[in-house]
Amino acid sequence: MIEDLFDLEQVAFRKSIIHSLDARAKIIVCCAAIVALVAVPYSPVVYSVSAVFFTLFLLLWGLSGIHPAEYFKRLLLAVPFGFMLCGFQIFFKNRYYTEYHTLVELPFGINIFLESVEFASILLVKFLVCYSFIILLSSTSPLQELLEAAGRLKVPPELILALAMMIRYLFVFGSIYQKVTDALKTRLFDPFDNRLSYRYRIVNMGYMMGSLFIRSLEQGERTYASMLCRGYGRDSYIFIRKKPLVWSDLIFLGLCLLIIILVPIFFWYDLFSFMNQFVPA
Fold it and tell me: What's the alpha-carbon Rg for the chain, to the nearest Å?
């Protein structure tokens, strides 16, 4: 997991139409898609809206030029959580239905309800589509650009500074972890090698975790001392230059928001049937 951290960030530095867009436009589109899809009530309408939103995501992903394997690699990180969250819903009744029909009867009085399965599928579809837009945002915008874009969108500077420190230390920790694991590999130590005794592997893994903790603590002290030498204090914030949106950003933002706003309204009010009333037979 940690070894892939640097590879995942390198994807965001590629060149494409989507990569070149301002991060503010991509953040707004991503948040708008999530809010619009979550706002759609739990009903079969979610399937139609999600299909259009996912088509929009596929179009933007294709324009980014990123290989589909990168999408599935990041999706697999959250799929277990999504299935765990949605899987338990099939065993419980919820407030969105008044009648329930038993689909499968299990021992110990456990039942799987048809309506609960439908609710779980709707919840899973919402989760996958929303997470797909998050993957698109993180895959086409470096973390530093996202922080600067958040600052230009008037996010509190205290929050941006805390996130910036967390992100920088995430990569520092990844670098320290790589050095420790490389040192173990040069000594031909494999914690999953069954030829070694279990006690020996546990002891050495404990030494490794302790070394990681000590190195991280020492790195933190050095970083804090260097920050103080550069005038860092509690009132210090990240300097963010003003950057106007260009026409390509505005066109992208306008088209995507138009689709995101109109599609839920179109399917929820069933405008297909409404327009058919004015079409002569």
Answer: 25
pTM: predicted TM-score of the whole model, two decimal places: 0.75
**Residues 145-202: tens digit of each pLDDT:** 888 888 888 887 777 777 777 777 777 777 777 777 778 788 777 777 778 788 888 8
> Phi and psi for 112 in degrees, rounded to 5?
-105, 120
pLDDT at 33: 93
Q: Which two tokens stand for residue 113?
A: 């309800």
140-161 in b/e burial notation, b at 16+ Cβ within 10 A? Answer: bbbbebbbbbbbbeeeeeeebb
Q: Which residues contact 19 (CB under 8 A, 6 or more apart)?
A: 12, 13, 64, 140, 141
66-104 burial, b at 16+ Cβ within 10 Å, e below that, comes to: beeebbeebeeeeeeebeeebeebbeeeeeeeeeeeeee
User: Cα 8 to the chain's mean position, in Å?
Assistant: 12
The mean pLDDT value for 98-125 works out to 74
Beta bridge partners of 102: 113
